[in-house]
Design goal:
Length: about 375
């Protein structure tokens, strides 16, 4: 912890720096690869929507030593040939999802499951959702997502500046698209808990980005008047100054989510926890990545196109070149030599070289 604190202090003071902005094309390439994988997963496999969105019936059976093969055999006995999803929830519970069923078909499935698993019909939890209600839930989820993005963009434009709002929203879209693509790749069902996880990661991603942008605003408040650094250099300094804070915050947030995902969903078999925790885990990781590697470079790219920032970059380049030349000029004379300029009149000077000065020998003192 002390070494991490020391690294954070050097990053904050600018003694140690990682060039995040200068290597922006590398981060863009990594994000482009992730986005391409997500797009391929969405177009080839698509999202596995839960019954809350597409409608259908779900039957949950609690019995010891349940197997997926038994559940499939029960569906075959009930003459259900449509699409079905069977999941084991822990060691003593199994969930069977089917499409929309009539009352007679639902009773047949319950009887077949009760016979196959040797349980009472009343002990089978049955849930039926119509397709119209699923469409309504889908529309409300989309309205909530777009409304959230719109309100956040207006707030960021008023609190900071419009280009910061655009960079932040680009990072948010980046996070959501990658998370949705990984959901399609893994094959988890999208449920209302998943939508809640998506909205949560949007807020966390924006929180981390706002922390970085607040430091950027502090570093660039008087940047045009001082002319010491370019806008990209100021943004890179702000990212380095908030790097340790982002790492600590993300690690503390990911540890409990990882516990929910691997312990709650993996060992305890809680399906709702699995849907929520996977969205949170992926979203928190991509949100931290995007706030450093995507949002800040996009902001620097947008601001560097402004005429004022281009003029500032030229002034900084001229000043750096002059400082470099002065350093070289001061280091030309060798050890023991110096130069002197003698005015010969007419403005012409002759440069003479002088060697080391001969010191007079001191006579030994008499005792």
């Amino acid at each position: 912890m002390s070494s991490l604190s020391g690294i954070g202090g050097r990053l904050y003071r600018g003694e140690t720096s990682v060039d995040f902005i200068g290597k922006r094309h590398r981060w863009y390439a990594i994000s482009g690869l992730l986005i391409a994988i997500s797009a391929i997963s969405l177009f080839t496999q698509g999202l596995h929507l839960g019954i809350e969105f597409k409608g259908g019936s779900a039957f949950t059976v609690s019995a010891p030593n349940t197997t997926i093969a038994q559940a499939r055999q029960a569906l075959t006995a009930a003459h259900i040939t449509g699409e079905s999803v069977i999941q084991k929830i822990g060691s003593g519970k199994i969930r069977v999802q089917t499409g929309a069923l009539t009352g007679v078909q639902s009773n047949a499935v319950q009887d077949a499951l009760a016979k196959e698993f040797n349980v009472n019909v009343n002990n089978i939890d049955t849930q039926s959702i119509g397709p119209s209600w699923g469409k309504e839930i889908t529309h409300k989820a989309l309205y909530g997502l777009f409304g959230f993005i719109f309100v956040v963009m207006i707030y960021l434009a008023m609190a900071f500046e419009p280009k910061m709002a655009l960079a932040a929203i680009a990072a948010v879209v980046h996070d959501v698209f990658i998370t949705v693509g990984i959901y399609a790749l893994v094959g988890f069902d999208v449920t209302p808990a998943t939508v809640i996880g998506f909205l949560t990661i949007l807020g966390y991603s924006l929180y981390d980005t706002v922390v970085v942008f607040d430091k950027v605003r502090e570093n660039t408040r008087t940047i045009t008047s001082t002319g010491k650094t370019t806008y990209s250099q100021a943004v890179n300094l702000a990212v380095n100054q908030t790097l340790v804070r982002s790492f600590n915050t993300s690690l503390i947030a990911l540890l409990p989510v990882a516990s929910i995902l691997f312990v709650g969903a993996g060992l305890l078999g809680a399906g709702t926890l699995k849907d929520l925790s996977l969205a949170l885990f992926i979203g928190l990781a991509t949100g931290t990545y995007s706030s450093i590697f995507i949002a800040s470079p996009i902001l620097a790219t947008l601001r560097e196109r402004e005429p004022a920032m281009q003029a500032l970059a030229k002034r900084v380049a001229v000043r750096s070149a002059a400082a470099s030349n002065n350093t070289k000029a001061g280091s030309e004379p060798t050890i023991g030599e110096s130069r002197s300029d003698i005015d010969t009149g007419g403005g012409h000077k002759v440069v003479t070289e002088r060697g080391p000065r001969n010191q007079p020998k001191r006579k030994p003192r008499r005792r």
